[in-house]
Write a structure and sequence with these properties.
alpha/beta, 20 helices, disordered C terminus
């Protein structure tokens, strides 16, 4: 029987102080960041519980648990990220193995203890502390584990693909996130939000800004350069126990890539702000800003996961977008501009999962900005965390009746072709939209493939279909392909798909378009701060017209 999960959110609120203290002590998280993280964990619980209630309206779809689910979260968000995966798995009827990383055992243990206190049985939620090798890999390989939920590096996701038996990975991975700043932007606002995006929590976030693509007019402007430098110097570097700290110690000694970024310059680069290590703490580094970074360089292409920001000069917006899109990753991306023409070009051409205009590129909030990327920033099969489709990844789905009516066209026109903003925050648009995958490769029986062909036609998704010969199918698959399997794969096919790190959607085609069409579409979340310092600009006039039309102001 399923446990009653109604006490989880209240218990998290009750243990807020303990969770915050454990994060500050164990991973060096600042109080502000730790407090926000507990709130996010509570938001995940409440939102996914509401999402579960919505599933009852999908009357023609049967949801079945996938089975034992391994939650392998990162150390840098030791409460909110595992909480999201745990509650999603439990809500869909799965048992959970919670394996935290060695760096964040204390907050993970308090989280597990909190959930047990809330009434979740230890049979349904097991806490396993072990080394990554060999024990962690053995867990991933165990055939009794039906789903692995990883938040970590792209290299770890590749490893999981190689060693696991079958296709069972949801992987949120790395990022090389860039912010483009136009000369037609609010310069003061841009500087404030860039520095927070790059250096809060010492840049130890997969969403942190690592590149600044700066228009030549600003790049060559000594006043902008001075202001940017002064603002960066004002960031307090120190202990996480100091409430004023913005840049705290790194969790470990710098990795080889990060150490190189902190200590070396490439041809044409110079330090606008040279980082320095604290003589008493080799993990405590002040922020570093590299000026004159070139496209294709080490700084441009490499994820650092630390307090280093590379600055690249551009003259045309299309040139800047090309610089952003030419990295292997596609997690978060930002633009600062007050020109709607530039916004439209950027939105159309940028490739990332979470887009931000005139605001920070970190700090995604559950439901407002569902989180997840594309390209090397996402592995396996799943949907954006904190979004309306996330629970689908934790269940096997079947048609309840063989005579179900196909509803692809209706759901595409009525749902997937539209932008969704459930939060409706004044001053900020938060739009979730759906775009076709670049290409889908489908393998299955002729009758099932007819449904897939229809779904791709409706969603305008390029498709290539294969029947019968698995070896011929594999020969045509590129690395990281999007694959739709309509029947269970053989051991050979599973192994080959894993070696190519394919994103695989598996199971018979569903007649219900609300669920089936998700296999052919990619979620994109856009957050746009259209106010400036509380001034709504053109939107204020639109509101005035709305009220003059008969609507009443809220008291």
């Amino acid at each position: 029987p399923e446990d009653d999960l109604s006490r989880v959110a209240p218990m998290l609120k009750q243990r807020r102080d303990d969770l915050i203290g454990a994060m500050v002590l164990n991973v060096g998280k600042t109080f502000h960041e730790a407090d926000s993280e507990v709130s996010e964990a509570i938001d995940f619980v409440n939102f996914y519980q509401r999402s579960k209630e919505q599933l009852k309206f999908l009357e023609d779809v049967q949801f079945k648990p996938k089975g034992a689910t391994l939650i392998a979260p990162p150390w840098n968000f030791p409460v909110s990220i595992p909480m999201g995966g745990i509650i999603a798995a439990l809500l869909m009827g799965n048992n959970v193995i919670f394996k935290p990383p060695k760096e964040s055992v204390l907050p993970a243990w308090i989280l597990a203890e909190t959930l047990w206190q809330a009434g979740i049985s230890k049979k349904r939620l097991q806490f396993v502390m072990c080394n990554d090798e060999p024990e962690g890999s053995l867990l991933v390989q165990d055939p009794r584990v039906k789903l692995v939920v990883l938040t970590g590096s792209s290299a770890t996701a590749r490893l999981f693909h190689r060693i696991q038996n079958g296709i069972k990975l949801i992987g949120e991975t790395g990022g090389k996130n860039a912010i483009i700043v136009s000369n037609l932007s609010d310069h003061d606002l841009a500087i404030k939000d860039i520095l927070h995006s790059a250096f809060s929590f010492s840049g130890q976030k997969c969403s942190a800004a690592s590149l600044l693509i700066l228009h030549e007019e600003l790049y060559d402007n000594p006043d902008f350069k001075r202001q940017f430098l002064d603002a960066a110097k004002s960031y307090k570097v120190g202990s996480a126990w100091d409430l004023g700290t913005k840049v705290n110690p790194l969790i470990n000694e710098p990795s080889p890539h990060l150490l190189k970024a902190l200590t070396e310059l490439e041809e044409g680069e110079e330090w606008l702000l040279e980082p320095a290590v604290d003589p008493q703490n080799t993990r405590l580094w002040s922020p570093g800003i590299k000026w004159g970074v070139k496209k294709g360089s080490f700084t441009h292409q490499t994820e650092f996961f630390g307090p280093v920001l590379g600055v690249i000069k551009y003259s045309r917006l299309e040139e800047a977008i090309d610089v952003v899109n030419s990295t292997p990753y596609g997690l978060t991306s930002g633009l600062f501009s007050l020109d709607p023409r530039e916004m439209n070009i950027w939105k159309e051409k940028i490739i990332a999962g979470n887009l931000y205009i005139n605001r920070t590129v970190t700090g995604a909030i559950v439901e407002r900005q569902p989180f997840g990327g594309t390209k090397e920033s996402f592995y396996g099969c799943g949907f954006k965390a904190g979004g309306p489709n996330y629970l689908f990844a934790y269940a096997n789905k079947e048609n309840k009746s063989s005579s179900n009516k196909i509803t692809y066209d209706a759901f595409f026109k009525g749902y997937f072709s539209k932008n969704h903003d459930p939060a409706q925050i004044l001053g900020q648009d938060n739009l979730l939209s759906y775009v076709p995958h670049k290409k889908v490769y489908a393998f299955g029986d002729k009758e099932d493939l007819k449904w897939v062909i229809e779904a791709c036609k409706v969603t305008h998704t390029p498709l290539e279909t294969f029947q019968g010969d698995e070896e011929d199918f594999i020969k045509h698959l590129p690395d990281r392909a999007i694959v739709r399997l309509t029947k269970p794969p053989s051991d050979y096919l599973s192994k080959e798909l894993n070696l190519r790190a394919c994103m695989v959607y598996q199971g018979p085609p569903l007649a219900n378009g609300r669920v089936e069409l998700l296999n052919y579409l990619r979620e994109v979340a856009l957050s746009y701060d259209y106010h400036r310092y509380g001034n709504l600009g053109v939107r204020e006039k639109q509101r005035e017209g709305f009220y003059k039309g008969g609507a009443k102001r809220c008291p």
